[in-house]
Automatic annotation (TrEMBL):
Organism of derivation: Pyxidicoccus parkwayensis
Lineage of producing organism: Bacteria, Pseudomonadati, Myxococcota, Myxococcia, Myxococcales
The name this protein goes by in its record: DUF2381 family protein
Entry coiled-coil feature ranges: 146-173
Cited InterPro entries: Mxa_paralog_2268 (IPR011754)
Keywords, sorted A to Z: Coiled coil, Signal
Signal peptide: 1-22
């Protein structure tokens, strides 16, 4: 079912960078490999590692992990029962958190090494985030290899290039004309125009969502996709505002999401608020079914919708 003309007009305005009431952009998420060097002597500062329910996080060490005389691992993990999988290998630790963990929850993780060299063990603080999980963390006791530094430098260079491209794009969009002319000037309008689709009936809503989702519309333009939500805040709930969003396909591939747009806090006395999530994506990248996750400041209440498709 096509979206209403008013909804399509709203999208055209949003695609041209109308940002009144928009949230402050959050820093881009680095989904690459993170390297960490352990000091020989404890400093009292435990590294934080972000984990997410249903997403695997692996810690790879450069030394074997200790096991007891019966061959059992000696990993100390707070609320271990809240993890679907705790897989301890010779020098790796894979964690798969369950949905029972709450956003913002902090858990302590301790490992011990087999050879007894300094440091004999390491402690980490696992921080539960609704979407942003660190997939791979390389932990070094000995000085890092040249290859690890080269990989880190390559990733940093790619991040700088990405930031430069985003800055140039934003400058071009903000300095250009508005309306349909602006879409053409920014090369976001091709001969396919802007396609719209109402996907409310095909979307699956998470039982723990902070907001009541009334309608879901999806849009596609040249190099862009948009998800527009029409929502309400449950009676008696605190005002809600999204500070971050993530769009992923069934394989876990993440689209590059731009700052979330909404007119203001979703209040309990203000019905049918709009929240708009825009992402950079080619037609090939935005095929199939996607899951949208939004979260508020402090990683508290979240909104999760799956089964979203684009025209």
């Amino acid at each position: 079912m096509p979206a209403s003309p008013s909804a399509a007009l709203l999208l055209l305005t949003l695609l041209m960078g109308t940002t009144a009431g928009a949230e402050t952009p959050v820093p881009p998420w680095n989904a690459g490999v993170r390297q960490l060097e352990l000091p020989a002597e404890p400093t009292g500062n435990e590294p934080e590692v972000h984990i997410s329910p249903g997403v695997s996080t692996t810690l790879a060490f450069d030394a074997e992990l200790l096991r007891d005389k019966e061959g059992k691992d000696t990993v100390g993990l707070e609320k271990r029962e809240a993890f679907v999988l705790v897989d301890v290998g010779q020098a790796t630790l894979r964690l798969l958190p369950s949905d029972t963990l709450k956003n913002g929850e902090r858990l302590r993780l301790m490992v011990r090494f087999k050879d007894g060299a300094a440091p004999a063990g390491a402690a980490f603080t696992l921080v539960v985030h609704p979407a942003r999980a660190e997939r791979l963390l390389e932990v070094y006791r000995a000085p890092r290899t040249a290859a690890s530094y080269q990989r880190e430098a390559k990733e940093a260079k790619a991040e700088v290039q990405q930031c430069h491209e985003e800055l140039e794009r934003e400058r071009a969009e903000r300095g250009g004309p508005g309306g349909l002319t602006g879409l053409i000037a920014a090369e976001q309008m091709d001969n396919m125009g802007v396609s719209a689709r109402m996907v409310t009936e095909s979307v699956t809503k998470s039982p723990g969502n902070a907001l009541v989702t009334l309608e879901v519309h999806s849009y596609r333009a040249a190099g862009r996709v948009v998800v527009e939500l029409v929502v309400e805040n449950p009676q008696g709930a605190q005002p809600w505002s999204a500070v971050g969003a993530m769009l992923t396909d069934r394989t876990g591939m993440e689209l590059k999401v731009l700052p979330v747009w909404q007119r203001g806090f979703v209040e309990t006395d203000r019905k049918r608020q709009h929240i708009v999530v825009e992402a950079l994506a080619t037609r090939e990248e935005a095929q199939g079914s996607f899951t949208l996750k939004l979260w508020e400041a402090g990683m508290g209440r979240t909104v999760s919708l799956s089964g979203i498709s684009f025209p």
